[in-house]
Amino acid sequence: MADIFGIALLDYYHGNYSEDIKTHSSLEEEDRIPLPYLFRSFEEMPQLEQKALELARGEVLDIGAGSGSHSLFLQEKGFQVTALDSSKGAIEVCKLRGLQSVSQSSIMDHSGRQYDTLLLLMNGIGLAGKIESLEGFLLHLKSLLKPDGQILMDSSDIIYMFDEDDDGGFWVPGNTNYYGEVTFYLEYKNDKSDPFDWLYVDFETLKTHCEKVNLDCELVISGEHYDYLAKLSVKT
C-alpha cells in the first residue's frame, strides 16, 4: 500500500505543502484532511484530545502517532512516550521533530512491553477495522497494559450520517454488521492507497465489548459532534 500519510507528512515538514490528503469513503463524498491540522499544537487540539493528554500518566504508547504532535507535547512535559505508527514516513517525521522513542509497526504486531497509558486519539479505535475484530483488538491492547494501566481513546457515533425516519429510527444499509464500519481509501498528488476498513464505535457498543474482555469503560467527556473520550482499565 502506498504510504499516503507518510509522503504527505514529509512534504509538509519539508515545506512542500501544496495540497491536502483527500479521503473517499463508503459513506460520504470526498473529504479532505488538512495537513497543517496534523501538526497542531496543544492549544489547537480539540477539547477531547487536550483532556486525554492531561489524563496521561507514566510510560505512554501513542498508537497511530502520525506526525507525533501528541507525543511531542507529552515528551516536552517530561513523559517517557513512544510514538508508534505503521507509516514509514510518519515515523521519519516524528524523528525529525525530535521524538526520542519511536516504533514503526502496526499495533497488532507490537508486543513485549507494557505501558501505563495507551493513547488512541483521532479515532484510533478505528484500527480494529470491523466490529467482529473489536474484542480481539481490545484483548491485545489489554496485554500491553501494566496492572493499573489505562487506555484513553476517542471515537464518534456516526448514526447521525444516516437518514432518520418519522419514528426516530435510522435507515442503515444492510451490507454491514454494524453501521460504524466504513471503508476508506486515501488520495494525495494523484497517488491512491488501497481500500482499508475503519471502525467508528458508539459508546454503549464500546462498553459492551469492553465488558466481554473484562475491561472497565468510563465515559470521560462528550464532544460537540457525537464524539466522546473514554477511559478503559482492567477490572479488579
How would you describe this structure in keywords?
236 residues, alpha/beta, Rossmann fold, 7-stranded mixed beta sheet, 5-stranded antiparallel beta sheet, 6 helices, 12 strands, 29% strand, globular, SAM-dependent_MTases_sf
Could you explain the architecture of this structure?
The protein is an alpha/beta fold and 236 residues long. It has a single domain (4-158, 174-234), classed as Rossmann fold. The chain has 6 helices and 12 strands. It has helices spanning 4-13, 47-55, 69-76, 88-96, 134-143, 203-212; strands at 21-25, 31-33, 60-63, 81-85, 102-104, 115-120, 145-156, 181-188, 191-192, 196-199, 215-222, 227-234. It has a 7-stranded mixed sheet with strand order 5-4-3-6-7-12-11, with helices on both faces. Strands 1, 2, 8, 9 and 10 form a 5-stranded antiparallel sheet that branches. β6 (115-120), α5 (134-143) and β7 form a beta-alpha-beta unit. α1 (4-13) packs parallel to α4 (88-96). The longest helix is centred in the N-terminal third of the chain and has 10 residues, at 4-13. The chain starts with a helix and ends with a strand. The mean pLDDT is 92. GO terms for molecular function: methyltransferase activity. InterPro entries: SAM-dependent_MTases_sf. Pfam families: Methyltransf_23.
Short description:
With 236 residues, the chain is an alpha/beta fold.
Spell out the blueprint of helices and strands.
Layout: H1 4-13, E1 21-25, E2 31-33, H2 47-55, E3 60-63, H3 69-76, E4 81-85, H4 88-96, E5 102-104, E6 115-120, H5 134-143, E7 145-156, E8 181-188, E9 191-192, E10 196-199, H6 203-212, E11 215-222, E12 227-234
Helix pairs in contact: 1-4
Keywords: Methyltransferase, Transferase
Protein name: Methyltransferase domain-containing protein
GO biological process, one term: methylation
